[in-house]
Amino acid sequence: NVSVVLFTSDLRLHDHPPLRAASAGAREVVPLFVRDRAVDAAGFAAPNRLAFLADCLRDLDAGLRERGGRLVVRSGDVVEEVCRVATEAGADEVHLAADVSRYAQQREKRLRHALRAEGVRLHVHDAVTAAVAPGAVTPAGSDHFAVFTPYFRRWTQERSRDVLGAPRAVRVPDGVGSEQLPVYRGVSEGLAAGGERAGRAGLAAWLRHGISAYAERHDDLAGDATSRLSPHLHFGTLSPVEVVQRARTAGGAGAEAFVRQLAWREFHRQVLAARPDAAVADYRPRHDRWRTELTAREDIDAWREGRTGYPVVDAAMRQLRHEGWMHNRGRLLTASFLTKSLYVDWRIGARHFLDLLVDGDVANNQLNWQWVAGTGTDTRPNRVLSPVAQARRFDPDGAYVRRWVPELAGIEGAAVHQPWKLRGPDRAAVGYPDPVVELSDGLARFRRARGLG
Ligand code: FAD
């Protein structure tokens, strides 16, 4: 008997329910990854994520080879390829991790239909949530939680399953052809390395050295004291069940605060599972008449390129371009700046993030953007973050700005946050742009647009 395991956002061997189920009873297994044509066509194949993905696939292949197996890689239409591989291997079942985007839900449906016609069973497992699978808990009268705090209360009450070990051996049937693993270029210079090994090493280091100070330090922009595990959680090179359980074992206030962030990830996933249209349309329409590429081209370009004249915004936007990653506090304040101070459509910002983020994730990115824009699940949709106040609070000494905005590296202390206050010749000497908008004008425009008087 032969099973196919279709890997998608679960590129690991440890704690992998589909692989465990597929290999039960000493079955032969075809570990399969399909480079999906539709993902490229939809513009989701950003170079940073493709490069990280290539690392993940190489590492998965290496891990499988150590166990006597190998990874089969194909490209094309994912459903056609799975059917083709199932036929070549003589498989009678296919295992897959459930996922929440509209595309993933449709993929599962198409796959089920196509495999049924071939007499092959499809088994779908929960492999991307730590505690609560999307839709498994709901509040009275709704199919999902729309507010985080009550969701989190439920989430903490759920006991997650035990962590599964990696398989000792994987037997792959002969005669199933594989393509070469791709190589990618043109990526961010400071891009992190992908793969399960890198993920596990990152998790171990985080539990040893980082997590205990997370509660106090996670918002410190210059301190860079978050786990940076997001790309591994996005590609599933780390299992969220294992991350949560090991964090809980580490214990303390830091671990508690960290686990709460992982619950945010699952909160957004259950929203998107119930409302897949929230990837593109307002979750709670506020009737905004956003500025767009047609009406705010120069402002949008300045934002994308990190030359808005607000140093902390520009620092974060440059970090994004350089590393393919941005600190959460940076994401919050740059998104607030674009949507509220410049009154630009959140979809334009979300698209730019997805073009560069190595952890770019439909659920987390689109729903966090909506949260900041006030069209999502924030219960205070009209709050506006001032980049100057944010900078003073989360980069009090200005070290983060000096790291990413070299034009300002010579300005000491918090003065770096307001270069427009420098005196005439000093200001000209730094060669740094004037602010694209006065914050009070931006705020007034936003309040008018939202009918706040
Ligand atoms: P840590 O602080 O160490 O947190 C641990 C993990 O918890 C993260 O890896 C992530 O999986 C999860 N997490 C933390 N904060 C959030 C949050 N607010 N929402 C959901 N999950 C969270 N995260 C993504 O993974 N992909 C995205 O595309 C993404 N886009 C974002 C866009 C905006 C506008 C904002 C405000 C946030 C976005 N986030 C996104 C959430 C968050 O910023 C990142 O998960 C975090 O910065 C990743 O760094 P870390 O792994 O060091 O996080």
TrEMBL record:
Keywords: Chromophore, FAD, Flavoprotein. InterPro entries: Crypto/Photolyase_FAD-like_sf, Crypto/Photolyase_N_sf, Cryptochr/Photolyase_FAD-bd, Cryptochrome/DNA_photolyase_1, DNA_photolyase_1_CS_C, DNA_photolyase_N, Rossmann-like_a/b/a_fold. The keyword Flavoprotein applies. It comes from the Bacteria. Transmembrane segments: none annotated. PROSITE patterns: DNA_PHOTOLYASES_1_1, DNA_PHOTOLYASES_1_2, PHR_CRY_ALPHA_BETA. Residues 1-130 form the Photolyase/cryptochrome alpha/beta domain. Gene3D superfamilies: 1.25.40.80, DNA Cyclobutane Dipyrimidine Photolyase, subunit A, domain 3, HUPs. SUPFAM superfamilies: Cryptochrome/photolyase FAD-binding domain, Cryptochrome/photolyase, N-terminal domain. Its cofactor is FAD. Belongs to the DNA photolyase family. This is DNA photolyase family protein.
